[in-house]
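Blinded run. Sample ID left blank on purpose so nobody reads anything into the name before looking at the predicted structure. Input follows.
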Amino acid sequence: MSHEEFTDRLKTRRFLLAAVIAAILIWVWAFWPRQPVLTITFLDVHQGDCAVIRTPSGKTVLIDAGGAGNYDVGSRVVAPFLRRNGIRTLDLVVMTHPHQDHIGGMYGVLKNVNARAVLDSGAPHASESYERTLRLIKQKSIRYRLARRGQKISFPDGVKIDVLHPGDEEMPDLNNRSVVLRMTYGSASFLFTGDAEHEAEDDMLKNCGRVRSTVLKVGHHGSAQATTEPWLKAVKPSIAVISVGRSNQFGHPAFETLQRLTDSSARILRTDRDGAVTITTDGKRLHVTTTRRP
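Blinded prediction complete.
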């Protein structure tokens, strides 16, 4: 055998060996069991709130559905997002409070997507949008429950939700009667605050044991009346998500709030700049993606 023939055979064997190793690695990657992940997407619904949660076992939760103005966010943004992601039924719908920028799109969602249960603040509010949504919930025989501090919701995959607010004290302002939820999965935790302002934050600091959370959905779109320094010291978020409309008439988020968040060293994400914000976690590490790039 000539030297050239030996060299060619050696190259062929090396190539075949590399191909076999590559095939084995691909097979292992395809069938190796992966740690299930929890996914939370804060949709860009302009000057409003909407969060879609999918647990590792596929359970789904919707918190608010935006809806300020005449644009039907529920039918045109939220429901299509759910359908694109294969969500035909929501296991739980949370209406934090009956302001239009939080529940204005809920009717459109519930007309297009099934729901098993609704958790509501129960705060009275004589708006056609809210009353129409309540009528639809009744017509579709969806289980309806009022949120109260101390309630717990558990999923079989280890995701747990605690209701931190409202408590026993009746607060006159609808924002401060917002449903506030703390969700945990492994060592990762998420705090959804609706439009809760400093009065509600103070109440939770006095009456709730643990509020510290990895991710904070900033209260009231970053209003100056929310996200106080004592609240941030207790929550200690690594990530702060502000759901807010670009160039909105309210001046949200307020400069003071942004400064407090910056001083707390939290990473700030905003739907007006970043678009939809998606956070996935295996219960240990967090991964963030946005629909807009800087």
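Unblinding after everyone has recorded impressions. The chain has nine helices and 17 strands.
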